[in-house]
Each structure stands twice: as structure tokens, then as C-alpha cells.
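BUG: 3D viewer hangs when loading the predicted structure for this chain

Environment: internal workstation, default settings.
Expected: structure renders.
Actual: progress bar stalls at 90%.

Input used:
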Amino acid sequence: MRNLRATAMTFLPAAVTALLLTSCAESTGASGQSSQAPAGDGPIRIGAVLDITGAGAALGVAERKTLEMLAEETNADGGINGREVELIVEDNQSTEAAAATAITKLINEDNVDIVIGASRTGPSLAMRPIAESAQVPMISLAANADIIDGSEWVFKTTHSDRLVLERMVEEIDARGWETIGLALDASGFGEGVEAYIQELAAPRGIEVVASEKFAPDATDFTAQMVNLRQAGADVNIIWGIPPAAALAQQAYRRLGLEAPVMHSFGIGSQVFLDTAGPSAEGVLAALPKLLVVEQLPEDDPSKEVIMEFIAQYSAAYDGEKPNNFAGIAFDAYKIATAGLEEVGTDKAALRDYIENVEGLHGVNGTFNITPQDHAGLAKEDLQLVTVEGGTWKLAEG
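C-alpha cells produced before the viewer hung:
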């Protein structure tokens, strides 16, 4: 773990590294032991760092609503073992530096018992070494496998991007497509995607023939789509989140690309459909079950959980339906509070509890977390989904 901290700090911006050093200094005394008070009475403090504004707002707003709803429900039911839940939400403005500042505040000033977030990969990676060095459990809501690879204190409730890409490449192979064009989010969300696709595709005789990048807050995708059109791949993959992914899809159709298009699981929200409009028709994506839950068989182990969550969320927010990102936050809160109820606020005991969660049916699938896998989700929980008539439909595999 000492090597992990040094490696992580090497690649962080200077401002984030400074915050990490401050966190280390404030969280340990001369003996090297934590200076935080031991678990006791009073409120249980759950901190959340979310992308409420900025490029990740389509994710963070729904996640905040979910956490606020669930915390209110917990307190209405008497709290956790008689202790009130105090939810402290920080907006990282979709930046790495603000995420590092936020988690440092939550740990050193608010003395939270666990941290949920951030919404996206880049901010989550900035938070990871701070949580590790302070030895505070953290449950990320983001995708990149690097968030949890080799971690001790960091978990997440999304399918790792590697699982999603495996599902996508399997589908590409099954459909006989032999060449791929890529348009990738240039932030941490897209980091490593091209290399992993190539690793998966090459043994199947599939070639990546074009790779373009775009900023997560981009609004003009003309250059990228023209280049993809010239490459003439059998299928193109747009890897991003709304609104950028939706605007890229609009440009894809407007510039006359006719090849099938697949998207990352970051498009799993109504925002994508509303922004992309008719251009979204026919897109394919490997997504969690929430968006197509009514089309699942009755014996699906997550269906009842998802239906109850949708009903609760819709009742709390005037008929609004939750998106995939709300479901990710739901799972994180349920795992966190199950641990807090079982073992209390001793951070080491809570970390150990989360690392051994088994058979927990959530919105995103069935969680079987292990020391080797701090997400614990299976590829089989992902559904191949398309857009038909402006709504999400299960696609024929």
C-alpha cells in the first residue's frame, strides 16, 4: 500500500498531490495512528462527492437525488441502530482538483464514516489515494477499472469498463463486423479503452481502423465524424456520456455515417434520448437492467429490487423516473448502510464487511465482492439494448 500511494501521487496534478499530503498529515499523529475519534454515539456521517455541475451533471444530479431520498427514508425508519444518518454532499464541479478538495474536507473536517463518489472516473481517481492514505472506505460510482485495481479501501458499484468492452466486442464478433472506428472521451473515462478493445479484438481478427478523441464538454464533433466516415469501419463506437455522447450521435447521423454505432454504458439516461432525438434510433449499448426492467423475465434476481426503486424514486420526485446513474448511487448507499448496520462505524471493520459482500441483489446486478474484485458485478448482468421509437428496448443478440 505504501507503493500504491507513491505511484498514485506521481501522476496526480500538483494541487491534488498537495491535498493528499495535507490529508496524510492531518489524519495521522506522531505514532502514525489515526487521530479520529473512535466509533461512538451521535450521527453516522456519510459523505458524497458528486459531479452535480459541469460535464458530469447528467450523472451527479440523479445520484444526489437518490442519496437524499434514501437518507431521508433511513432516518424516517429510526436511523441505523438508532443513530441518525447525516448525509453531507459536495459538488466537485466535474473536476479532479475539486474532487480531491471535497474528499479531504469530508475526511478531515466532517469526519465522515464512509465516502460515496465521485460520479466519473477522473474525479474518482483523484479521490482514491486520499481515501487509501486516510484509511476511509470509499465507494465510487464511476466505471474505469483503475479506480479499484489493487485498492484496499476503494470499491465501486458500476460494471468495470473492461466488462462492458468485453460484452461489446463479443457482440461485434457475433455480428461478423471486422473493423472498428472509435470516438473516445478524452478524460479518465476513455483512458485505456482503445488499448483494451485492441487486446480483445485482435485474437478475433477484428481491427481498429480509426481512433478519435473529444473533450467531455465538447459540442462540435464534425472533425471526428468526418474522419470516422473516411475510415469506413464496419461499426463505430462512441464512448462518452451525455450531453457530449448525444451531440456526437447527432453529428454521426447529420454527416451521413451509415455504419452501425455502439455507445458506452454512459448513455443510460433520458438525457441522452432527449438530446440525441431521432438520431439515437438504432444505437446499441451494453447497459444495466434498469432501463429495460419491464422487459426482463419475472425470475430475474434484480427485477423486484429495480421495480421497487423506480416506484420509490418516482413517488419522491413527482413521477420522474430514475436513470442508470441513480441506480448506481442506490447500490452504493445500500451496501454502505448494510455494513454500517452490521459492524458500525469502525472503518476497518466496515471495509472488511464491504469486501465480503456476497449475493446482494442490487439495481445494477448481483454483487459478489472479493479482495480481488472490489466491484463484484458480472458481465451477465449487462443487457444488449437498442433505441427503438425513442425508447430503450432489449436488442436481439
